[in-house]
Amino acid sequence: MNATPDRLHLDVTGATARERGAHRGAALRDTLSGAYAKYAELFRTLGVTEELEASGVERVVTAVEAWRPELLEELRGVAEAAAVPFAAIVALNARTELIALGTHGASECSTVTAQLGGHRLGVQTWDWHIELDSYWHTQRVSGAGYTYVGLTEQGILSKIGVNEAGLALHFNILGHEADGPDGVPMHLLSSVVLSECATVDDAIALVRAAPIGSSSSFTLLDGARAVSLEISPVGVFEIDEVAGSVQRTNHFQAAEPLSRQKTALYEPDSSERLALVRERLADAVPQSAAELVRLLLSDAGQPPLTCVPDMSKGYGDRWATLATVVTDPDVRTIRIFDGMPPEAEHGEWRVLTA
Question: Cβ-count burial of 211 within 10 angstroms (0-12 exposed, 13-18 middle, 19+ buried)?
Fold first, then answer.
């Protein structure tokens, strides 16, 4: 997982959604079927049968068709150009919603924003299954609305990113008892936010108007504001900055969704990680991007802000920090390190500007 200059980068463009999808699919033609096969294996491992997956895909298509049908056109373009079934591309983009149909425990992502002399930065570790490390890439997307840059997975339209208007989006999964595939998938919602919204307030309004059937948090920041938006089937809740910082792990902080969260998925790990970050912030306010990254370092015996996979376990339980990300909305940049915060101290970062 060391930083390498040859990690795939896509420049996705096109005048129409179908063209953008085709551009993406053509670039991924050699690897996209493998990415779906690995996700299908994960779904089965977590108890999501072929029947549950197929039903979930149908429900997602119905929800997206009623909200932003052009997204389905983009996914059809991906499928056709990559010679992969349309249902497989929908499943990849709805992987968060499909996984919610199964049972799994997790050690997931941590995100922090901070103000450095009034200048907001965001930092995140992206923690996921080590078996999927071969299937993510960086990207630049243009052709409709705002151009945005960031990190995503094979065939998935968006994840973490920053756009040319100066809006940054970090992504953490959450779990609620009502989660299911009856709304817009979170990864598709991310692509719409980054392409259509110029500010945090714009993004909040868009998310509140979207059909939501699953849970995640978008930590959003621009030059004026940072907020962690808890998105769930029972509502959208804003967690505002306190002392110039927002901290996010994988449990709800708002009381209403917290009362029915899938606590067994992420606890006590998530609360322990959040407590460690807050303890460090109380001791010293970061004065640079490097110090902000160091907030997410963890050693053996500490809550896993940095995830090192236990290779004695099976697929579904080998959690790894696949990437470390820093966003700077004021200058519209995202810095992405191919690996963990300890390696990032002296490693090579990829810097993208929207």
Answer: middle
Confirm whether pTM is higher than 0.85: yes
Return the DSSP state at 284.
-
Query: What are 207's two structure tokens?
Result: 């998310």
Burial of 15 (0-12, 13-18, 19+ CB in 10 A): exposed
Q: How far is CA 139 from CA 11, 83, 143, 158, 195, in A?
A: 6, 21, 13, 9, 13
Nearest CA to 84 out of 144, 172, 156 is that of 156
What lies within 8 Å, CB to CB, of 47 at 6+ separation is 101, 102, 103
What pLDDT, on a 0 to 100 scale, did the predictor assign at position 5?
56
- Are 161 and 33 in contact by the 8 Å Cβ rule? The answer is no
pLDDT of res. 265:
80
| Stretches in the chain below the pLDDT threshold 50 | 1-4
Return the pLDDT at 3.
41
Distance CA 330, CA 328 (A): 6
Which two structure tokens, joined as six digits, stand for 67? Answer: 């909200």
DSSP letters for 97-144: HHHTTS-------EEEEEEETTEEEEEEEEEEEGGGGGGEEEEEE-SS
Q: C-alpha distances in angstroms, 206 versus 96, 97, 170, 248?
A: 20, 19, 16, 21
Read off φ and ψ for residue 228, nearest 5 degrees: -100, 115
Residue 59 CB coordination number (10 Å): 17
Single-letter residue type at 90: V
Specify the DSSP class assigned to residue 187.
Answer: H
The answer to whether 341 and 293 have CB atoms below 8 angstroms apart is yes
Q: Which two structure tokens, joined as six digits, stand for 19?
A: 């063209």
Asked if residues 259 and 235 have their Cβ atoms less than 8 Å apart, the reply is no
Residues 6 or more apart whose CB falls under 8 angstroms from that of 280 comprise: 295
CA 223 to chain centre: 21
Backbone angles phi, psi at 163, to 5 degrees: -110, 175
Residue 220's H or E segment, with its range, is strand 216-221
